[in-house]
Write a structure and sequence with these properties.
The chain has about 525 residues and is α/β, with parallel strands linked by helices. It contains 18 helices and 14 strands. The longest helix is centred in the middle third of the chain and has 18 residues, at about 320-335.
């Protein structure tokens, strides 16, 4: 095969990312020289809806000029909740565990349709969701509330409903992170997690949601950079580059014939192991179709060259590349058409983006999700004039690499002030220490009620000390866990404990309404929360 033709076939196997809200020249070059198959957008690429649509349209016009048979797949991590990319002008939808807390998969379906409609309106045709990881490890640092819950059956139901909702809107979906990232205590962005369970246990829990969604017409599956020694006998080989996992388990045993994509190959579990470029070759050999390299141009080009070299020396066959391309083309034929791309005129953002109808869909789900775990007769709270309320919460929201720092500013105080305008707010820093705790406790002594927001408490967290000292000083303390439901395990003695599962403003606003008896909330914990040992006790 002619080298330029082969290079353009290899390029179609890559998903790449770049900086900025406009298409850089080097990306245009990659589109023309290598026919790059897909683009991934992050928060760094997201401006107003108009700017997003202009960016995606420009990318497609470039692909058309380069002679592409099908439009580009343009993907994004719009899981909703704590992991979302769309910002200004788009609807804030509830994330997975928030939906799981409703107990009603119809919410997942409706949110899936609405999310898909907004993505499609902005020229994004592939969503890297839903997350099918079963979060049965309270110490999981990277999945947590990105999961629908700890029950494989529940994750299956909600995952299927979410997938089918997005598909109904004409969006390609992604089940992730195969074969399961839920029972880890290590973030694969930072290191290589290991899941030691045998195949029988994996089939009962981790694999169950994937099997059920594959049977219902899954589009793509994303691999996990996690080592499964019960499947892959070679030590330290993550699922992404394991032929036994991708071909043996996923393709042959589970009969998945759709597109398999890697998670980003610049995550440390790959980068500090086999390396991004060599990892790209290993992933294709394992049976993967799309290799995702989200950030660095040098590694993107390096991976293409490494793959070409592997074909030349016989390590990879042209047949393997053709098979991957066939699966990718089938996906593109199902979801993409040049008729949907505004080639000749400037595109306009449809009114569906950020619409009142979508806000209502989100609100109904939030109302059914906010969970009052404990209420020792404190709620509903009076907001009569003269009632002194202090709101205390962290000043920053991100703890996971995958979260978008643009949405990290917490606004619990603002939500409370919608119902109690005279409430005062104190935001404490991530470096909360004993001195600041004493300042907060002394300040709290001048108020009737303290509403405290927590954010993913871990052993030794100063948030535990703060809440305990507030409880000692006051009878009326209301704790709202703004992400992890497991926070309650460290704070069993609080008079009132609520969960929102995410710190998005609509979730916090519904919780605030529930505190003052203005919202009837119906959520139930989708995970088991046990009392946790606190260091030093």
């Amino acid at each position: 095969m002619e080298q330029t033709t082969l290079a353009k076939k290899v390029g179609q196997l890559l998903v790449i990312g770049f900086d900025g809200i406009k298409v850089p020249q080097e990306i245009r070059n990659l589109i023309h020289n290598y026919h790059i198959g897909a683009i991934i957008l992050f928060g760094r690429n997201i401006g107003t809806p108009e700017e997003v649509l202009a960016l995606t349209t420009d990318l497609q016009r470039e692909a058309k000029k380069a002679g592409y048979t099908h439009p580009l797949l343009i993907c994004v991590d719009q899981e909703n909740g704590v992991v979302r990319r769309l910002g200004e002008g788009a609807t804030i939808f509830p994330g997975a565990m928030t939906l799981g807390a409703t107990g009603n998969p119809n919410h997942a379906y409706n949110v899936g349709v609405a999310t898909g409609n907004e993505l499609k309106a902005l020229g994004i045709n592939w969503n890297l969701a839903p997350v099918l990881d079963v979060n049965n490890n309270p110490d999981n640092p990277v999945i947590g509330v990105r999961s629908f819950g700890e029950s494989a059956e529940s994750v299956s139901k909600f995952g299927r409903a979410s997938m089918q909702g997005m598909q109904k809107a004409g969006i390609a979906t992604t089940l992730k992170h195969f074969p399961g990232h839920g029972d880890t205590s290590v973030d694969s962005h930072l290191d290589l997690p290991i899941i030691p369970h045998g195949l029988a246990r994996l089939e009962e829990i981790e694999l169950k949601p994937f099997k059920e969604c594959i049977a219902e017409g899954a589009d793509t599956i994303m691999t996990a950079h996690v080592y499964f020694p019960s499947i892959e006998t070679e030590p330290g080989v993550p699922a992404t580059i394991s032929k036994k996992v991708i071909t043996g388990l996923l393709r042959e045993k589970l009969k998945f014939n759709g597109v398999v994509t890697t998670d980003c190959m610049e995550m440390n579990a790959i980068l500090h192991g086999i390396g991004t470029e060599k990892g790209a070759v290993a992933a294709l050999k394992a049976g993967v179709d799309y290799v995702m390299i989200s950030h660095t141009l040098q590694r993107q080009v390096g991976a293409i060259k490494e793959i070409l070299k592997a074909v030349e020396n016989g390590e990879l066959t042209e047949e393997e590349i053709e098979l991957a391309l066939k699966r990718i083309d089938t996906l593109k034929e199902k979801y993409l058409s040049w008729d949907d791309i505004s080639i000749g005129k400037e595109p306009e953002v449809p009114e569906t983006v950020g619409s009142k109808q979508h806000e209502k869909i989100a609100y109904e789900a939030y109302k059914d999700s906010v969970t009052i775990v404990k209420n020792n007769g404190v709620l509903p709270l009076s907001n009569e004039s003269g009632t002194r309320i202090l709101v205390v919460h962290p000043n920053n929201g991100t703890t996971m690499q995958v979260e978008d720092k643009r949405y990290a500013n917490l606004s619990l105080g603002q939500a409370i002030k919608e119902y109690a305008a005279d409430a005062d707010i104190y935001q404490f820093s991530s470096s909360l220490d004993e001195k600041e705790i004493e300042t907060i406790v002394e300040k709290a002594s001048h108020y009737d009620t303290v509403i405290a927001g927590t954010l993913t408490i871990t052993p030794g967290s100063k948030q535990i000390t703060l809440i305990e000292k507030l409880i000692e000083a006051k009878e009326s303390v209301i704790v709202i866990a703004m992400r992890s439901p497991y926070d309650f395990g460290y704070l069993p003695d609080v008079p009132v404990y609520m969960n929102t599962y995410e710190f998005t403003y609509p979730a916090l606003r519904v919780a605030a309404g529930a505190i003052f008896g203005k919202e009837e909330v119906k959520g139930n914990l989708p995970v088991t929360v046990k009392k946790r040992l606190v260091e030093g006790k």
